[in-house]
Amino acid sequence: MTDDFVDRVLQYYHEYEISEGDIDLNKRKEYQEIFNTIDPISQCFFLIKDYHSNNCLFISERLKSKFKIDSYSTEVILQNFQIHPDDRMIIDSIQRARKYIYQQRIEERKDYKLVNNFRICSEANQCFRNDVQHSVLEMDQQGNFWLGLRIIHLDPDQESDRPASSFLQHVYRNEIIYSIYGDTESGCISRREREVLELISEGYVSKEIAQKLFISEFTVNNHRKSILRKLNANNASEAIKKAVKVGIIR
């Protein structure tokens, strides 16, 4: 990974200053104990980023082995996690998500998750496609993130050459704030639009959707138009394919 790219990633790590007096340092030991227990029996990898020390608090043993990680330093780890050059839009999405979340009320900032699908390349130029879920574990008293969790799954479709994708979701409202698939970006898909799209994908027509959601057929058709516009799709079939790829619907 080039030095300028590493610098770019580190820049957003250092964006907010965290004072030791504003955090509960006992949380470090607490999370280490939790993840030391669940890591050996989990099918995924875990990484906990400590923004106060600028190191990783926890890294799954299998993750360290797979990518030959022998340091907890963020800068050193970035040299091991070489993002495929075609997938580096992921960094823009991480920065964008962080900025969006910081605009929300402090008590809501832990309610979001960012999910990225992209390729990580080893020093031997072997690339692995991964789903990486980002979420906030702990904040300081000012609402700044100081412990962040990464949950990493190996994508079962390792041979795919599809573009990287990313979406930011409010977990409890089940609302997609934005989603990106390669060079295509969708606007904010509302919860109702998502419900409509899910029913379309199940084969229901507008009249049936209206009955199921207790809204008018006119409203359903307006949602259809909005979905096509936000997903930059020409028809319902194309919208469904894009929505599945970026995780809006399953």
From TrEMBL:
<protein>
    <recommendedName>
        <fullName>HTH luxR-type domain-containing protein</fullName>
    </recommendedName>
</protein>
<keyword id="KW-0238">DNA-binding</keyword>
<keyword id="KW-0804">Transcription</keyword>
<dbReference type="InterPro" id="IPR000792">
    <property type="entry name" value="Tscrpt_reg_LuxR_C"/>
</dbReference>
<dbReference type="Pfam" id="PF00196">
    <property type="entry name" value="GerE"/>
</dbReference>
<dbReference type="GO" id="GO:0006355">
    <property type="term" value="P:regulation of DNA-templated transcription"/>
</dbReference>
<dbReference type="InterPro" id="IPR016032">
    <property type="entry name" value="Sig_transdc_resp-reg_C-effctor"/>
</dbReference>
<dbReference type="InterPro" id="IPR036388">
    <property type="entry name" value="WH-like_DNA-bd_sf"/>
</dbReference>
<feature type="domain" description="HTH luxR-type">
    <location>
        <begin position="182"/>
        <end position="247"/>
    </location>
</feature>
<dbReference type="GO" id="GO:0003677">
    <property type="term" value="F:DNA binding"/>
</dbReference>
<keyword id="KW-0805">Transcription regulation</keyword>
